[in-house]
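ok posting inputs for the zinc ion job
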Amino acid sequence: MYQFSRAIYRELSADVTSQPGGGRVAAQARLLTECEASMTRLATDRHYFAHPVKTLFNDVRSLFPIGSQLHVYRTIERHMLEAIAYVDEQARDGVTFDGSPLCCHATTRKGTSCQRVPLPSSKYCPSHKHLDESNRQQPAAVAA
Ligand SMILES: [Zn+2]
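and the output
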């Protein structure tokens, strides 16, 4: 998974500007940390990470000069879309990014996590898929 954050870092680390109190090396370290945090979140929390490109861009944009902002955004977007495609492909195969099996997000009546494999494109197994449907209807109900 970190091949994606390292790719972003490699392309952008030369463009960072010195930060007050930290200098350029500190800014580069911060860039790497933010990239890796985003990739970790994407890999482990895909369903709740709604805007990974915007989130990472907002976290690191202050490290770059105004003239580089568009380049920074495009670079993040390109690598993030690859990372998302990778995570989704792994999820379709029923495994997480590191090859361990995906588990249903539901909690059983005993209070333990459900160990079953989720349906494709859902975070719940067949027995808990109603949870996914009720989640999806909530925003619409609030909007109405
Ligand atoms: Zn389940």
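notes: Helices lie at 2-12, 23-44, 52-60, 69-92, 129-143. The first helix runs from residue 2 to 12.
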